[in-house]
Amino acid sequence: MENAEENEAGEVLVKPKILTASERLAAKKRFRTQRRLSTMKNKVLRNAQWATLKKEKRKIKKEGQKQRKKEAEALGDKAPPKQVPRTIENTREADVTTVDQEDEEVTFDITHDEYEAYFSKTYEPKILITSSDNPHSYKNIIKEFTTHRPEVILNNFQTRLGQAVSRMLASLFHYDPQFKGRRAVTFHNQRDYIFFRHHRYEFKSQKRAALRELGPRFTLRLKWLQKGTFDTIEGDYEWIIAGKRHEMETSRRRFFL
């Protein structure tokens, strides 16, 4: 294989690719084009040149991907690991309260919290979720709303606080979903924002399912968590960030849920 050699230990080493004279010339040409575009005053010509430049970049990127895939297939098990992009989520700061589902202490706390009676199905919840007092003029925000009890999906709640919030959100719905309605309610936590989505699903085959969003959709942000009945004056706050956001959010990569 090109750009590869075998050392004394029998390992296959991939050498860095050396650009040819034509490739170096093409790279210099693209750089000069970018500098020229920044000073070009004609908007139509500038957009056309920029589109051509982007097309060339995509072509070069695709060729590089094909080459890397071909090299990985040739190396087999000795191929270098796939590169994972760095995101805010996978580089988040370590949290000492991150939950390990196999931890006995965590299991004990979960089985003895305020929602254990609900999850053990000792009583049937009686909760009514309504809209605000000021109705909207639009009538068709929610499509084909039925009385079937939905399934509840909770995603990416990793800390002790996140577990408490997720169990509280789950207890808003009946613990026994009616699968005949094919409805699913999702609470997805991402960067401490909780996204709510409501879908109806239909299995087209054994491997594929069609989704149709019914609505409504909204986003939640936790400001405080209070123990017991609601009391903003003398209530017992388990966690609060309101008024202390700048003190607690010391980094873009620090999350609490």
* Proportion in helices: 25-40%
| Average residue-wise pLDDT | 78
- Poorly predicted spans: none
Q: Please tell me the total number of domains.
A: 2
- Head-to-tail CA distance between termini: 48 Å
Structural class: alpha+beta
Number of helices: 6
Q: What is the CA-based Rg, rounded?
A: 27 Å
Strand segment tally: 9
- In sequence order, what are the helices and strands, one letter per element? EEHHHHEHEEEEEEH
Which overall shape is indicated by the principal axes computed on the Cα atoms? elongated
What proportion of the residues form beta strands (DSSP E)?
Answer: 15-25%
InterPro entries: Brix (IPR007109), IMP4/RPF1 (IPR044281)
Pfam family, one: Brix
Region (Disordered): 55-90
Protein name: EOG090X09U6
Question: What does it look like?
Answer:
31% of the residues lie in helices and 19% in strands. The chain has helices at 21-39, 43-75, 104-111, 116-119, 160-170, 245-248, and strands at residues 4-6, 12-14, 151-155, 183-190, 193-203, 209-213, 218-221, 224-227, 236-240. It folds into two domains: 4-78; 104-248, no CATH class. Strands 3, 4, 5, 6 and 7 form a five-stranded mixed β-sheet that branches. It has a two-stranded antiparallel sheet with strand order 1-2. The model has no long low-confidence stretch (mean pLDDT 78). The chain is α+β, with helices and mostly antiparallel strands and 257 residues long. One of its GO terms (biological process) is rRNA processing. This is EOG090X09U6. Residues 55-90 are annotated as: Disordered.
